[in-house]
Amino acid sequence: MAARLLGLDVGTSVIKAVVFDLDGVEVAVAAVAVDVRSPRPGWAEQDMEAVWFAAARSISSVLAEIDDPGEIAAVGVAGQGDGAWMIDADGAPVAPAPLWSDGRATHAIERWLDAGTLSRLFERGGTVLWPGSQAALLAWFGEHVPAVLERATTVLCSKDWVRYRLTGTIGTDETDGSIPFMDLAARSIDDGQLDLLGLTDHRDRLPPVSPAHAVVGEVSADAASATGLRAGTPVVAGLLDVAANAVGVGAIE
Questions:
Q1: Helix or strand run (H / E) with residue 98
Q2: Is residue 215 a contact partner of residue 236, using CB atoms and an 8 Å limit?
Q3: Maximum distance among all Cα pairs of the chain, rounded to whole angstroms
Q4: Which helix (H) or strand (E) holds 76?
Q5: pLDDT tens digits, 192-216
Q6: pTM value?
Q7: What is the distance between the terminal CA atoms of the chain, rounded to a whole angstrom?
Q8: Minimal CA–CA distance to 197: which of 247, 138, 155?
C-alpha cells in the first residue's frame, strides 16, 4: 500500500481537501463552499457546525477519488487565522465564530491605538492587531455580550476547531498562537501581552500551543464515521494558511 497524506484547508469561503503522495504530488482534490454571514454591517461570521460538516464532506469526497482510504498515513489542517472560535466545556460552540475579516471590534482597536497600547504590544511581540484579531474580539465579547464569553472555556482558530472535531483534542499551533499572545523567542504564551491588553482574565481560555508538525491526536471513531478516514490516523497540529503557503512553496530559507 502506498502511503499518502491528506491536507485540509479551512478557507473563508471554500474548504478544500487534497490527497498527496509522499513526494508532494497531488493525487485528488475536493472542495465544499461555506457561507459567511453578516447579520450586521461590518460583521463576518460563520456557523461552526456548518464549517465542520463542510470539512467532513470535503474529506469524504476526496477519499472517494482514491482506491483505498486506508492509504492515508496522516492528516494536517491549515486554515484562515484569527477570529474567535469559542467552545464550552463540552466542546460545543457558544456562538457563531466572528472571522478575521469581522469589524465589530473596531472601537477596541481605536482605544488601544489612542492609548499607545498597540505600539507597546508591537515592541513586545511583533504583532499588529486589527478588529478581527482574537484579542480585539475577546475584548468586544467581554464588553458587549459577557454572558456568551462566560460560557466559553476555550477560544480557538478555524483549523483548531476542525482538528478538535477530528480528534477530540484541544490546542493550537505556534503560527495561530503567535497572534497576539506569544513570546516568539520562548515559543510560549506571554502573560505580559495579556496584561498590556487588559485580557489577563482570559488566560485560561487560551489553548495549549504545539509546533505545527507535532502529532497531537488521532482520528476518532465519530470523525471516522463522518469522513471515511480510518480511526486512529495521526493528525498534526496544523498551521495558519499564510504560513502554510510559505512552507508549501519552499519560502523558508
A1: strand 97-98
A2: yes
A3: 60
A4: strand 72-79
A5: 999 999 999 999 999 999 999 999 9
A6: 0.96
A7: 34
A8: 138
